[in-house]
Amino acid sequence: MHKSLTLGVAALALTITACGRKEPPAIDVPPTDQPAGDASGVAPGDVELTELPAMQADLVAKAGSDTVYFGTDEFALDEPSKATLAAQAKWMLANPKVRASIEGHADERGTREYNIALGERRANAARDFLLTQGVPAARLLVTSWGKERPVATGSDESAWAQNRRAVTVVVR
Amino acid sequence: MIRNIALLVSAVSLATAAHAQDDPPEVVGGSVRSSQTIAVPAMPATQGASEALGRQIAEVIASDLRSTGAFTPLGPNGIGGYSVAQAGAPAYGEWRNAGAGALVAGYVEARPDGRITVACLLHDVTAGRQLATQGFTVAAADWRRAAHKCADTVYARLTGEGAYLDTRIVYVAETGPKTNRVKRIALMDSDGTNLRYLTTGRANVTTPRFSPNGSQLVYTGMLARKPRVFVIDVASGAERLLVPGGAITFAPRFSPNGRQIVFSWAQGGNTDIFVVGANGGVPTRLTSAPGTDTSPSFSPDGRRIVFESERSGTQQLYVMGADGSGQRRISFGGGRSASPVWSPKGNLIAFTRIGGGGFRIGVMDPSGGGERLLTNAWQDEGPSWAPNGQFVLFHRTAQGSGNATLHAVPIAGGAPRRMPTPQGGSDPSWSPLKT
C-alpha cells in the first residue's frame, strides 16, 4: 500500500519566481531604442495637451456651443451642426494662439472598438467642416473617446442623442 | 512508514514531470462522468506542515472544481479526513457509501528548505483505482498555485479537456459615475484572488490583452487625448507606446508567436487594420476598405486573421490571410456581428452579436457555419477564450447604470458564471496557462 504511494508520487518543482527566471528571454521583449515618454525623441503628437477652461467658456459663449450632435450610427453633419461649427470657426480665427482637439463620442449601443472608430469619423467630419471655414489644419486635432465618456447617463433615446456628439476642446 | 513515504517523494523539474505524466487524458467511463460527485477531503499534513493548510488547499481545489461546472464537490467541510498512508490507498468502500464517484486525496509536506510539496492523487472510487498522481513543490506562500495545479490535474484527467485553472485574468476595473468612469488595469488569479492593479496614470484604459507567454499586455490608453496602443510589462509595469507620432491606434492583439501586434488605426474618417512588430517599427497595412475595419484576432496557427468590417454596410465578420490576402465575409446571420476572437483550439470564433437592441455572445466555426448564441442579456460583449477553449469570458453591462461585471460561459452550453471582482469589471482577457 505505502509502497505504491511512494512510487506513484512525482513532485514538481513549481517555484513561481524560479520558473520565471529559468525561462528563456521572451520574444516580446521591450525595444532597445528610446522608449516613448522620455524627454528626447517624443513625437509632437505624443505630447500631452493642456485644456484651457477660460478659453473653452469663451468659445461656448461666442459660438453658442462647443458640441454638435449626430444620428444613430451616423457621422453626417446636419444644418444646425454646420451653423454651430461655422461659429466655432470664427472663434478659432479670432483666437489664433490656441488649437482645438475635435473629440468624437458614441452612444452605448455600439461595441467598444467599433465606437472608437465611429467617434473618429464624427470628429473627422467636424474637422473637415472647420477646414472649409478657413481654420488651418495645423490647429485642428482629431480624436475619439468611443463610448467612454457619456454626458447623459440614461439608457434611452434622449440620453443616447446627447451622447452621439463631437466636442471642440480648446487646448494648448 | 509515513515518514518514509514523505522522504521518498522526489522533486523533479516541471518539464520532466509534464512529459512523465503516464496516462493520457481520457474520459473515464462508468462512474466518472460530468457533474459527478467528487470527494475533496481536507489533506493530511506531514513533516510539520500545518493541518489548517491541508484543509485550505482542499477548499481551493473543491472551489475550482465546482467552478468548472463539471463536478459537484463533496467537502472538505462536513466530511471526514484520512491519513497520509490512505492518500494512496483510500477506503474506496467508505467513499462509495458517502456518494462519491471520485476522490481527490493527497497530503501536504513541509520541506527543509521552507517550501511545501502538495501531493495530488485522483481516484476512481467506483472502480477502486488510482487515475492520476502529481506532486507540486511551491514556496509556502504560493500554496494556492499548488491547489490550482491539483484541480487542473483532476479536471483534465476526468473531462479530457485541457487545464485552465492555474491562470490569471486581466480586466478593466471600473469605479466612479457613468459619465466619468475611473478605469484601471486589474490582474487576478482565475478564481478572483491575488488581485492587483497595474497603474498607468492614463485618463482611460480599455481592452488589456495578454501576450502569448503571459509576461506582457497590450492595451488601449489615452495619450494627448487620443486612444493609443501601449505594451506593458506585467512584472515591472514598464510600458511603451507601440506606434509613436500621434496616430489613433486601438484594438490591439498579439500574434500567437508574440512577435507581432495587430491593431486598428483611425485616420481621416477611416479605420483600417495594420500589423507591426511587437517591438515597434513601421506598421504594415492589411485592409484598405472604406469604413471601419477593426477588432482583428489571429488564428492560433498565426496564418489567418478574423476581424469585423462594415464594408457591406453593417458590422460583419471577415477572415483574411495574415498578410491581408483573401479577405472574405463569414457572418451571414441576422443582425450585426462584432469583436471576433479566434479560439485557442482554432475550431471556433467567439463574437458579439448585435441585434434586437442588445448584445449577445456567440460562437461560429471559422467558415461561418454552426453559429450558436451562448448568452442572453441586455449587453454582453468583449469575448475572450479560456486557454483550453471550453469557456468564453465576457463582460455584461447593466441597462441604465452601465455597471459592468465579468462572466464566463461554457461553450458546451449552460448558464454564465459570474467572476468575482470587488468593483465593476469590463474587457476581460484570460491568460495562457502559467508555466
Describe what this molecule looks like in 3D.
The complex is a heterodimer of chains A (172) and B (435). Chain A is 40% helix and 16% strand. With 172 residues, chain A is of the alpha+beta class. Chain A has one domain: OmpA-like domain (60s Ribosomal Protein L30, Chain: A), CATH 3.30.1330. In chain A, strand 3, helix 5 and strand 4 form a beta-alpha-beta unit. In chain A, helix 3 crosses helix 4 and helix 4 crosses helix 5. In chain B, a hairpin with a 6-residue loop joins strand 28 and strand 29. The N terminus of chain B is likely disordered.
Provide the fold topology.
The complex is a heterodimer of chains A (172) and B (435).
Chain A: H1 2-8, E1 10-13, H2 16-22, H3 53-63, E2 67-69, H4 79-94, E3 99-105, H5 112-132, E4 140-146, H6 157-163, E5 165-171
Parallel strand pairs in A: 3-4
Antiparallel strand pairs in A: 2-5, 3-5
Helix pairs in contact in A: 3-4, 4-5
Chain B: H1 2-8, E1 10-12, H2 14-20, E2 36-39, E3 45-46, H3 51-68, E4 71-74, H4 84-88, H5 92-97, E5 102-110, E6 116-124, E7 129-138, H6 143-159, E8 168-175, E9 182-189, E10 196-198, E11 205-210, E12 216-223, E13 226-233, E14 239-241, E15 248-254, E16 260-267, E17 270-277, E18 280-285, E19 293-298, E20 304-309, E21 316-321, E22 328-329, E23 336-342, E24 349-355, E25 358-364, E26 372-373, E27 379-385, E28 391-397, E29 404-410, E30 417-419, E31 424-430
Parallel strand pairs in B: 2-4, 2-5, 3-5
Antiparallel strand pairs in B: 5-6, 6-7, 8-9, 8-31, 9-10, 11-12, 12-13, 13-14, 15-16, 16-17, 17-18, 19-20, 20-21, 21-22, 23-24, 24-25, 25-26, 27-28, 28-29, 29-30
